[in-house]
Amino acid sequence: MCSQLLAMARCAAAPVHVSTKHRRRLEAIVRQRHAPQSLVMRARIILMAGDGVGVRETARMLDMGRATVQCWRKRCRASEGQPFAERLCDAPRPGTPPTFQPEQICQIIALACEPPSERGRPFTHWTHATLATAASEGGIAERISAHSVGRFLREVKLKPHRTRGWINTPRDADFASKCHDVCQTYQLAPARAAAGIETRRIDEMTGVQALERAAPTQPMRSGRPERTEFESIRHGTTTLIAHFDVATGAVGYRLGPTRTEADFAQYLATLLATRSPESIWHLVMDNLNIHCSEAVVRLVAEAIGFDGDLGIKGQCGILQSMATREQFLRDPSHRIVFHFTPKHASWLNRIEMWFSILARKVIRRGNFTSLDDLQAKISRFIDFFNTTMAKPFRWT
User: Fold this and answer.
1) For residue 332, what are the CA distances in angstroms to 23, 64, 198, 218?
2) 287 near 320, Cβ under 8 Å?
3) Angle at Cα 200 formed by Cα 199 and Cα 202, nearest 5°?
4) pLDDT number for residue 9
5) Where is average pLDDT lowest: 81-85, 130-134, 144-148, 246-250?
6) Could you tell me if 224 and 193 are in contact, meaning their C-beta atoms sit under 8 angstroms apart?
7) CA quadruple 17, 22, 24, 27: dihedral positive or negative?
8) Which of 9, 255, 317, 342 is 20 to 30 A (C-alpha) from 44?
């Protein structure tokens, strides 16, 4: 009898008072689907203590040790008057003393933000290992591992071993107006085509290689795609100058070895000759220097009957610089009007989408035994495209 009374006395526990406000918060924690299970079990212990359930019964119902139940009941009683969140949290533990002081960590982070050349290192960027070596040699820490350096950098989200390209080129002063001009040209192309006005997008595709596979291509089989030989035999390159009819989607082209000022002027003269001398043209192109060269200005001036003084290239007049030549070619009062896209605005270039079609359907997986073979296959594809596939792009 005495032993039973002693056991009951040991199992007896002081009651735990749980206010209505705290009970609602504890019940909310228990109902949470994604709450940590340790937090849920502690909330259950305190709720059952508030309902008058003893230690032994709580341990049996929650399938845990009585020492754990007693611990959290005592913690709850001892923390009355403290913030509610602290009652369910683990007590602070001493742990291992830190190896590196906050001042040392700050110095390592500052070192990672400096160019290696300022520390006498002949390389372009830091790695964790080189930072650890520099920190040791610089007296920041007597010894430090690359792993520790990486841990410090991850905490502040620094990655000195990575880089990403970007463009820091000033925009054209009239960037917005050029974008508006090109977009309006595309938008008005169908109506202008109905009135006999031509709208073309001109560009070049350079360095198209005539590659012959060193071994025959293996056809696809069930469960295995087509296999092309990695090694190839080079037979030279060709240059494609092409124009895209914005209203119909048809493509005109010229294949040759170079893309010079004379080549582009000759191509433009051939294009203008396909319509009557009174036809109105709107030509969209990028800022390549051959697009507003002296030869192009003289060609357009002759075509529109301009009888003024063109000046001298590099000295005076319309031919003085690219800016003056571009201004002449963009004159909306002319019969032939050039529209130049802003710099770094390739998304305004519709013919680039057609170049992508050509690359995917002919060039990328093609096998060309010679330069003539490459040019013949490109020509056949363009003829086929104009006959069966040409249509205006739905562009926004």
Assistant:
1) 78, 87, 14, 55
2) no
3) 160
4) 41
5) 81-85
6) no
7) negative
8) 9
Q: Where are the beta strands (DSSP E) in 246-327?
A: 251-256, 281-285
Residue 152 tokens, joined: 């410090």
Q: Where are the beta strands (DSSP E) in the chain?
A: 198-213, 232-245, 251-256, 281-285, 336-340
Tell me if 329 sits within 8 A of 300, measured CB to CB: yes
Q: Could you identify the residue written with the tokens 């350079």? A: 206
* CA-wise closest residue to 89 among 76, 77, 80, 98: 76
Q: Could you give the percent of the chain with pLDDT greater than 70?
A: 93
Rounded CA-CA distance 221/278 in Å is 58
335's CB contacts (< 8 A; 6+ apart) are 278, 279, 280, 281, 303, 304
For residue 109, how far is the Cα from the chain centroid?
A: 27
**What amino acid is encoded at 81 in this protein?**
G
Which structure tokens are listed for 244?
């895209």
Could you give the angle at the alpha carbon of 233 between the alpha carbons of 227 and 236, nearest 5°? 125
DSSP state letters, 108-127: HHHHHTS-GGGGT--SSS--
Q: How far apart are the first and last CA of the chain?
A: 92
pLDDT in tens, 36-65: 888 889 889 888 988 888 899 999 998 989
Provide the 3-class DSSP secondary structure of residue 228.
coil
Joined together, the tokens standing for residue 24 give 């609602």
Alpha-carbon distance values, 365 to 56, 227, 232, 359 (Å) = 76, 10, 12, 9
Residues in the chain: 396
Cα separation, 351 vs 243, whole angstroms? 7
Could you tell me the CA-to-CA distances from 380 to 173, 268, 363, 386, 388 in Å, in that order? Answer: 43, 22, 13, 10, 12
Q: Tell me, what's the pLDDT at 169?
A: 65
pLDDT of 172 strictly over 80? no
Provide the pLDDT confidence category of residue 81 given band limits of 50, 70 and 90: low
Question: Does the reported pTM lie above 0.85?
Answer: no
